[in-house]
Design brief:
Helix 2 crosses helix 8. It is elongated, with a radius of gyration of 23 Å. A hairpin with a 2-residue loop joins strand 10 and strand 11. With 350 residues, the chain is α+β, with helices and mostly antiparallel strands. The strands form four sheets. It has a five-stranded antiparallel beta sheet with strand order 1-13-12-6-7. It has a five-stranded antiparallel beta sheet with strand order 8-9-5-4-14. A two-stranded antiparallel ribbon has the order 2-3. The longest helix has 15 residues. It has eleven helices and 14 strands.
Length: 350
C-alpha cells in the first residue's frame, strides 16, 4: 500500500500555510484552491455526490468567472450581491451581473468596449493579473501595462516569471488559485498591511497542522494515525471522524479521538501484545473497515507503479476538530492510496 502523493489533498488542507510563488504544478494548484476554499474565497464549479467541491483546476476560466473569483478573493461577494449595480455592458449573463457591476464600479475591471464585456471568452494571464493589480491599488497605464501585467506582478513577488507573451493564453483555474493565494500576502500600494491582513481572513484549519500516518493495511481494513506536524501552532484536543467513504463505499469507523485516548491505546497494546507501541505525536487514531473489492471496482482512476496498474482508493473524510479554546473546525479532505501489498508498522495488532 502506498500513498499517492501526486494527488494528495490531506496535505492541501493541513500543510498549505503558504503556497510558494512558483510555476503552478498540480499539487501547488490544489493546495492553493483548498486554502482559498477554507477561507471562503474560492468555490468549485459544483460538488460531487458526497458534497466535496469540484475545483476543475484544469479548466480555462472565462472573463466573467475571473471577475467573480476576484470579487470573492477581496471578500466582497456579499457586498456585490447586496446591491443593484449599473454597468454599461449588454452581454453579461444574469448570474455575473453583480460581480461585473461591482468590479466595474470599483475600477477593477473594464469591458472590451463601452457596451461589450465579453464575459464568455477565456481570460488570459495578463487580464487576471491586471484585475489583481488593480485590487492592490495599482493603475494600468500608470503603474504597469495591462498587456504585460506579469512584469509588475513579478516585481511584487506574487508571480515568478512563469507568465509572459508565450504563456499568456495557457491559463486555467489552477493558475487563478495560485495567483490569488500569493496575492493575499502582498501589501496594496502605499499600505502597511498585506491584503490578507486588510481583509482579516482566517482559516482555522491552519491552527492545527497535521499529517496522517498509515499504520496498517489489511484486506478490508486500514488504520491511520493523525500526527501533529512539527511546526504546528496548536494541536487538536479532540478530533472526531464524522464519516468516511472510499470511492463512494461507506467505511465503518472505530476511533480514538483524543491524545489521551491514543496514549491509553498504546499502553494497552504494549501490555497485551508484548511490543512497544508508541505514537507520541498522534492526537487521534482511526480504524476503517470497508468492502475493499467494491471500493477497488468503483475506482475512477489508476496509477502505474513498477510496470503494474493499481486502482486508486480515495478516502474522503469529514471530521470535526476541537482546539484548546473550544473552537470547532470542520475538516474536509481526501487521502488517496493504492495497494501493492498488505502489512503495516505494527503488523496486524490493530
Amino acid at each position: 500500500m502506498k500513498k499517492l502523493l501526486s494527488l494528495t489533498l490531506a496535505l492541501v488542507l493541513t500543510l498549505a500555510l503558504a503556497v510558494p510563488a512558483f510555476a503552478a504544478d498540480s499539487d501547488t494548484e490544489t493546495a492553493a484552491a483548498w486554502t482559498l476554499y477554507n477561507m471562503g474565497l474560492f468555490q468549485g464549479t459544483g460538488v460531487d455526490d458526497q458534497g466535496f467541491p469540484v475545483f476543475a483546476l484544469d479548466k480555462a476560466p472565462t472573463r466573467a468567472q475571473g471577475v467573480t473569483m476576484l470579487v470573492r478573493l477581496l471578500g466582497q461577494e456579499e457586498a456585490a450581491l447586496a446591491e443593484t449595480w449599473t454597468a454599461p455592458f449588454r452581454d453579461v449573463p444574469d448570474w455575473a451581473k453583480s460581480y461585473v457591476g461591482y468590479a466595474y464600479a470599483n475600477g477593477l475591471a473594464t469591458g472590451r468596449s463601452e457596451t461589450v464585456f465579453d464575459p464568455n471568452t477565456p481570460i488570459s494571464a495578463t487580464e487576471y493579473l491586471t484585475f489583481v493589480l488593480r485590487a492592490l491599488g495599482y493603475q494600468s497605464g500608470e503603474d504597469f501595462d495591462w498587456d504585460a501585467a506579469w512584469i509588475m506582478s513579478d516585481k511584487l513577488g506574487f508571480t515568478d516569471g512563469s507568465y509572459n507573451g508565450e504563456t499568456n493564453r495557457d491559463f486555467d483555474r489552477g493558475d487563478v488559485a495560485v495567483i490569488s493565494v500569493n496575492a493575499l500576502d502582498v501589501k496594496p500600494k502605499e499600505a502597511d498591511k498585506t491584503l490578507r491582513e486588510t481583509l482579516g481572513v482566517r482559516d482555522d484549519t491552519q491552527r492545527c497542522l497535521w499529517q496522517e500516518e498509515s499504520l496498517l493495511c489489511m484486506p478490508n481494513k486500514m488504520v491511520f494515525a493523525f500526527n501533529k506536524a512539527d511546526k504546528s501552532p496548536e494541536v487538536y484536543k479532540k478530533f472526531v471522524v464524522d464519516s468516511v467513504t472510499v470511492n463512494g463505499v461507506t467505511c465503518q469507523v472505530e476511533q480514538y479521538s483524543t491524545p489521551a485516548a491514543v496514549k491509553q491505546l498504546c499502553k494497552d497494546l504494549t501490555k497485551s501484545e508484548g511490543i512497544n507501541v508508541s505514537l507520541p505525536d498522534a492526537f487521534a487514531l482511526v480504524c476503517l473497515t470497508y468492502d475493499e473489492s467494491a471500493a477497488l471496482a468503483a475506482a475512477s482512476r489508476t496509477v502505474e507503479d513498477g510496470g503494474q496498474t493499481y486502482p486508486v482508493l480515495d478516502f474522503k473524510f469529514r471530521c470535526t476538530g476541537t482546539l484548546a479554546d473550544n473552537t470547532q473546525v470542520g475538516e474536509l479532505f481526501i487521502m488517496p492510496y493504492y495497494i501493492i501489498g498488505y502489512g503495516g508498522k505494527y503488523g496486524d495488532i490493530f
